[in-house]
Design brief:
CATH superfamily: Spore Coat Polysaccharide Biosynthesis Protein SpsA, Chain A
CATH class: Alpha Beta
Strand content: 15-25%
Structural class: alpha/beta
Number of helices: 6
Number of strands: 9
CATH topology: Spore Coat Polysaccharide Biosynthesis Protein SpsA, Chain A
Order of helices and strands: EEHEEHEHEEEHEHH
Helix content: 25-40%
Largest sheet: 5 strands, mixed
CATH architecture: Alpha-Beta Complex
Number of domains: 1
Amino acid sequence: MGFPKHRLEVGGRDILTHLHERLGPLFAETVIVGRDIEAVPYGVRVVEDRFIVRSPLVGIHGGLAASLTDLAFVVACDMPHVDSDLARCLLDRANGADVSVPVVRGFYEPLCAAYRRSCLRPIERLIDRGTLKVTSLYELVDVRNLREEDVRACDPALRSFVNLNTLARDAAWRRSP
């Protein structure tokens, strides 16, 4: 991107504020994990990654370690349209599982999923081994998949999974209706 994704603007405000306004009311707390995050919405805690390596798995670990609750909803900061009904559905689907994750177009969507604190130790083992792919965790814990048809019941156009991880994608998204 050439700049940190958390500085993207959505609707005239930074993406972190946008996501907090959209999803924050669903939860008892909001935790942002990352480095060099200056301004954040009121009432949001910021924690830094514990591990030096950069990986979404490290971010998930940081959020779970800081969370005051056993079950946490995780979303990447470059996904501006995550549907609140989808978040609720994933949390409900967790029902005792370690992870509740949508499967869209045959692939996991691990950065729009619910994770339990029981994932902390398995994540640490993966990071210590240098295995940084989030889905590697799924081989070590109990996972509940949310099928695409169930995802579409909440989000028919699958807008929740639009991520703005390149300048070209950001520009294309801004041009779309």
